[in-house]
Amino acid sequence: MSLTNLDPHPSQYKSLPLVLSLFALSLFLLTGLLAVMEKAGIVIILIEALMTLLPLLVFAIMGVLFRTMKLSEFHWSGKSVPAGLTGITLAACFVGGSFFPLFLSMTYLSIQISFPILLGWASSLILCATLFASPVRKINSATIPEFLGARLQSKLVRLLSSLLLVLVALPLLCAELLIGGEVLSTSLDGSTFTSISLLSFILLISVVLGGVNGAVWTQALQAVFMVGACMLPVILLFLDQVTAPASMSEAGFTGLIDTSLTEQLVAIAGIGQSSIGRFLTTGQYAGTAWPLVGTILLFASGMASMPHLLTKYQVTKDASSSRRAAGYALSFLLLLMVLGSSYFLMLSDERLQSLLGPNALEQGHHAGLIAALIRSGIVAAVLAASSALLMAISTSISRDIIESHVLPRTSLNQKMILARVIVICVCALAAYLTYGRHLLFLDMLVLSISLAAAIFFPVLLLSCWWSKLDAIAACCAMIVGCVTTVLYALVVNWGATGLWFGLPAEMGGLLGVILGCVTGISLSYLPQIQEKERLELTRLIEQPSTPSNKTTPSPQSNSDGLRTEP
């Protein structure tokens, strides 16, 4: 089935502004009601549980409402998603549960840690938009492996890249489930095992029924949740001071205040105990420019190559819509970062605290509505990113591996059933791996980013901007990048070697990017030499065999020429 023959259904998105506006209004009114209930002395745990479970409830309902039985809508939403909606969902998935607690706690971290992570993360979206958005959309494909296979006209490239996609995206999916489970367990006062199970079950309800078609709507609503979680605490504090003003003499603030919520966010991120935190603060090259530059380069190249983010550009109407979607995503990300840091900036600045009064301190210390709003934003971000990752992995397995190589003659109904079964299997595997918790959350995140940078960044860059790249060079570049990253992580953890350039085990992807680019460029010239040899050999074979012909190659050279034929 060709994607160019699909019948788009743009009418389903005509009501999008109205739906998002009504949802934002409903969230604002609900927050106001809960604020009144909190002032009236309602049990705090009830308010926290309600606000934290609300994103899960909305996610499940929207998945059921936008369920589909059409394979085109399940995999790529009919290639008809507007640029604005694509930008909103892209930004929500880009932030995810991984980055949400990081930038919320940035004001409590030293600039040596916060600056390179923040700059690298933001730069990756710009890099992705300028380098890959338009070229990826010009080829009608549903996945990144399908794009690479069509660009290089090779089934081997498509198969290999789909297998490596699973290796890249699965650790990030586990990291998302882990942080979502920890936040849910904190709000619901339950175990992490139960919270991860609940999160996985809600994901399955939405993704299995709606696929990408349902994920587009749910991710848009989760983006509204994320904005509300950042903006509503500031509004509540302002209204609280208007209704109950306090003088500066009554405040009595002395020094910086560490709220319990901020401590929880810093503990969730675990950046002080992570390898990248040690690389930036206490590593071999700490205090120099190299840790800052290395962290920025890793996050920029890794996040720009994430398959679940690049897939977002493939559901738009055309290449120009993809470029506009990148602009919308950047604007939304800037808004989210400004709003998200405002509340915690107020609590970390003594002068702002004196203006806010003691109620700000009270709200910060107690696990009340404001803390519940922040946690609901994290859960919403986790759901948005997890659904995109789950669809990217399952779609690649079903389309690029099974349908393309194992069962090419399956019917549309069988493909739909197969796609949903694979979603269930991938989600179950991710939940199982998350229960082990062998790595810190941030280490899992950095490892996934490192693998994405080493495997996909060189081949995507050369595929989009260098016409000489061929299939063999692309395969070798991906394998070299993957092997370099994994081998470096293993030998460092085993103690077989020291840290190269001070890079932790999870950051070996920087080496993989360099070696992958060198491999792809150098090997791309070999097929041209072999092609010239093959043409010369063919020309010699077509010539009449005469005694005067002194240029006939020897059997050994003939044999070598035949061996180099693709």
List its salient traits.
566 residues; mainly alpha; 24 helices; disordered C terminus
Strand content range = under 5%
Largest sheet: none
Question: What gyration radius follows from the Cα positions, in whole Å?
Answer: 26 Å
What coarse outline follows from CA principal-axis ratios? globular
Which residues sit in consecutive blocks of at least 5 with pLDDT less than 50? Answer: 1-10, 246-259, 355-366, 545-566
Mean pLDDT: 78
How many strands appear in the DSSP assignment?
0
Distance separating the two termini: 28 Å
Quaternary status: single chain
Helix-strand category: mainly alpha
- SSE order: HHHHHHHHHHHHHHHHHHHHHHHH
Instruction: Tell me the helix content.
Output: over 70%
Could you walk me through the main structural features you see in this protein, from its secondary elements to its overall organization?
This protein is mostly helical. The chain is built from 24 helices and no strands. The chain has helices at residues 16-39, 44-65, 71-76, 83-104, 111-131, 133-138, 144-152, 155-188, 192-243, 248-251, 260-269, 275-281, 289-304, 307-310, 319-348, 350-356, 358-365, 369-406, 412-436, 441-465, 471-494, 509-524, 526-542, 555-563. α4 packs across α18 (369-406). The longest helix is centred in the middle third of the chain and has 52 residues, at 192-243. The chain is globular, with a radius of gyration of 26 Å.
